[in-house]
Amino acid sequence: MLRGIALALSLIFADAAHAQDLRPYKIENGAINLSLTGKPGDPARGRQIVLERQKGICLLCHSGPFPEERFQGDLAPSLAGVGSRMNAGEIRLRMVDGTKVNPDTIMPPYYRIEGLNRVAPNFRGKPLLNADEIEDVIAFLLTLREDGATGQSK
Amino acid sequence: MGWLALALSLLSVWPAQAQTPQDPRKSGFAYMGRDTQAMQQDDLANPAMLTVLEGEALWTTPTGKAGKSCASCHGEARESMKGVAARYPSLDEASGKPIDLSGRIAQCRETRMEAAPLVREGRDMLALSAFVGLQSRGMPVAPPQDERLRPFREEGARLYTARMGQLNFTCAQCHDANAGQKLGAAPIPQAHPNAYPIYRLEWQSTGSLQRRLRNCMVGTRAEPFSYGSAEFIALELFLMERAKGMTIETPGVRP
């Protein structure tokens, strides 16, 4: 009984802590329209995150207009031109939790910590990317236009 | 048994599953570069053959209080161990649970030889399982059709399709839906267990199927199941059934 209460309390507190970690967001018409941080991200930092193998791990599955990157995956659509195909809100929803768009997607939920199984202890309770990083990546993806821009920051 | 009777009995055990040219299943071998394939095919170049040789020596070395070796009970491995690895995991009558090949080797050592337990993934265990595995090389994967294994195999199928880890992947998403595609630089194989233990160039050592599965789980940022766990044995049962009729290649080489 006591242990039950302690467990229930620890669950409530764990939830409260998570709620503090993750900023609230609202899904409307297939998009999360408001920035998670209340401001636009930095495209140059976003580019770094996308290209970094351990951080974004995007290129494990996606390819994109990054000729200097030798090993790009082909499990997912190319990121080339994604900024012309989608607006910030649509990209944000797919980054935050792609299963909201396609329940069977293989794309990891980058801003979700609930409902995951057997997460390794060092990653438990942490989203793949934090709110600032999500906004940086979105800002960068918006620079990848159909007209051939590479998003290279000059 | 005459040749025809043998052929018929094989057919009845593996109906429709024996590998034909139309079979969409491919060994991980098919996804490797030429050099790595050549290394696996040449026993003098295959580094896992050193592990096999160590196993061959252990086979006849008496250890433990009973003063016995594997050979004291099983004789010539070429005869007695032929086809054994092809039908593991199988049912352990004593416990009513499935047991994998390493588990059986450990059991023989402890109960019949009264020898110190062998560590999973330790050198001697890998050596003995690679040596026993070699005796089935070229034979078809032949999981036992014992009803009592069914719930465990179903548990393996469930685990294979369960999302895991921070990256929230299932085994099936990579190995069924995306086999043959590229994950970064690596082509994703179909996850057949028919070449284990393997020498993996990346490990620079020989390792078991369970070590491979732990690698996949760590890759999804999941807490891997432990060596010898019921979960891994269930997964192996499922993978063996999925690979039924495919050719055993033990010991394999992988990049």
What report would you give on this structure?
The complex is a heterodimer of chains A (154) and B (255). By secondary structure, chain A is mostly helical. Chain A has one domain (2-141): Cytochrome c-like domain (Cytochrome Bc1 Complex, Chain D, domain 2), CATH 1.10.760.10. Helices cover 35% and strands 0% of the residues of chain A. Chain A contains five helices and no strands. In chain A, helix 2 crosses helix 5 (131-141) and helix 4 packs across helix 5 (131-141). The longest helix of chain A is centred in the N-terminal third of the chain and has 20 residues, at 2-21. Chain A is globular and about 40 Å long. Chain B is mainly α and 255 residues long. Chain B has a single domain (28-254), classed as Cytochrome Bc1 Complex, Chain D, domain 2 (Orthogonal Bundle), CATH 1.10.760.10. In chain B, 42% of the residues lie in helices and 7% in strands. Chain B has helices spanning 3-13, 34-41, 48-59, 70-74, 77-80, 101-112, 123-134, 150-160, 171-177, 209-219, 230-242, and strands spanning 90-92, 97-99, 182-183, 186-187, 198-200, 205-207, 252-254. In chain B, the strands form three sheets. A three-stranded mixed beta sheet of chain B has the order 6-5-7. A two-stranded antiparallel sheet of chain B has the order 1-2. In chain B, a hairpin with a 4-residue loop joins strand 5 (198-200) and strand 6. The chains are: A mainly alpha (154), B mainly alpha (255). At the A-B interface, loops of A face helix 9 and strand 3 of B.
